[in-house]
Amino acid sequence: MLKAGGLKRAYPTGVFVVLVVLGASTPGPSPTPASQASLEGAATNLARMWERGSIDVFVQVLVATGIRLRVGGEDHVSLSRRQAVAVLRDYLAGHRTESTQLERVAEVGGSPLQGYAALRWTVVHEGASRLVEHSIYVGFVREDEAWRVFEVRVLQ
Predict the structure, then answer these.
(1) By the 8 A CB rule, do 149 and 140 touch?
(2) Residues 6 or more apart in contact with residue 97 via CB below 8 angstroms
(3) Is there a contact between 2 and 48 (Cβ–Cβ < 8 Å)?
(4) Spatial separation of the C-alpha atoms in residues 32 and 98, rounded to whole Å
(5) Less Cβ around it within 10 Å: N or C end of the chain?
(6) pLDDT per residue over 120-149, tens digit each?
(7) Which residues pair with 70 in a beta bridge?
């Protein structure tokens, strides 16, 4: 369960890499407009979706087009929601999430208003037995009175 300060389990830490990814498809509760009204609420929703692997729900919080991804060492620009979800689903096929913790949320200004969230993701990669810890970076933009994801980056 997500608690104040994030999701935690007591596991040894592994390699620390800047990473942004989204989980496999296990349905979860949809984000409500009220929960997306604040950046903190949107970031908390994202952490819950990540923990549950709710990629099908995550698509609802993406901007419609122009999504930027950096996953698996490749850059993807100007993606639609469906394209972004497909890339992320393929990338995550070989990962098992152990925990996700929201570490930082900040508005950075601009017009339209932008912000970001940083999460810590503990994962086991396919074919491995040790836990690896990653940082997850998500870029948000304020759109239609809600915070929406416009960028995810995976730097390895």
Answers:
(1) yes
(2) 23, 50, 51, 53, 121, 122, 123
(3) yes
(4) 25
(5) N
(6) 888 888 888 899 888 889 999 999 899 999
(7) 75, 153
